[in-house]
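Final report, section 2: Outcomes. Of the targets proposed, Fis family transcriptional regulator is the one most frequently requested by collaborating groups, and we therefore present its record in full.
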Amino acid sequence: MAEAAAREQSLSSHLALVACRDGHGNKHLFNELMRTVYLAWFLQQDGYGKEPANSFKTAEYAVEASLELAHMSGEWVLAEDTVPVFERLLALHDSQLATAPLHKFIRAEQRLRQFLAGSASSPIPETDQA
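The predicted structure is given below as tokens.
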């Protein structure tokens, strides 16, 4: 991946986390966070990372809880205790951006599109199979 594109993708994810952490999130920013989490998951499945699956599930559950809160109260914010999980997953994704070849990112994007077009509730298993 071109260095400029990798920096742009990383910056977008980190800014989304800051906004969502500080109560300035919105649907687009939470989608950006989950997009990054899922891409990191798919890249890890291809050998780029060793985070436990429960970290990815924690992030997924945190976003679901935040969406429920936003629906009920209009407040778009991540639970403070989940921010370190997102920080680790974004650091993992930054590492993936620096090391994985472009064709792996293209494949991860394809897998993300397939997941989004399907009916599965999550691409991440309930048990720690990372």
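The helical segments are 3-21, 27-45, 53-73, 83-99, 102-117.
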